[in-house]
Amino acid sequence: MILVGTSGWQYRDWRGRFYPQGLPQRLWLEHFAAGFATVEVNNAFYRLPERDTFAAWRARTPADFCVAVKMSRYLTHIKRLRDPQEPVARFLGRATALGDRLGPVLLQLPPNLRADVEALDATLRLFPAQVRVAVEPRHPSWWTDATRAVLERRRAALVWADRLGRPVAPRWRTTDFGYLRLHEGRARPWPRYGRAALRSWVGRLTDAFGADEPAYVYFNNDPGGAAIVDAVAFAALARRAGHPVSRVPAAAKAADD
């Protein structure tokens, strides 16, 4: 199953393109969850919500909805994976209020954080087995057999990422689920993705993961509603190729379409 969504849902320029003009912002999550089956929450990276907020998201979304949550930057960017026990415990103490809506936890590492495989291993072992973790290193020193071995041992996914239509990380399969983030395409209007780029990523995912293995796909190119349009197009291409895909809206408008 390919689960397709966007990185966040609260973007003002999506009003009129995805959200109806008269829909209050307090109802945007419900509207989003009616169209998509998953979302990646980025604001937890900057300010970790209280447990009540996560519980409210669970109450406001349907039973099949899945929320991937980006780990607080306190662990990844301030502590830089040092002394992970308290940050991970605090994060889980809040995010687990999502219950069965909790999807993968995303650990995005700073671009200037060089490989520290022992620190990564110490962090990953703090997550319970039932919580999926996806790791997005961004310094080239991480691309080693030692990194891959830690991810495989801890059953964590290496995030596949794209910028300007090109992979920015190795396409290692390290566990039984995939995680793809699409940051910025090369098509017009910016930052849209072209059909050829989207079709390539459909093929890469389905070559690596079986129909019974989830692959989470999040579009992070939010300006002008590009993420919505590209997510819909990606899902259509995957379905046309015969692959099971989570629900997406029937159509959406992007700037300058």
From TrEMBL:
Matching SUPFAM superfamilies: TM1631-like
Protein name: DUF72 domain-containing protein
Organism: Micromonospora noduli
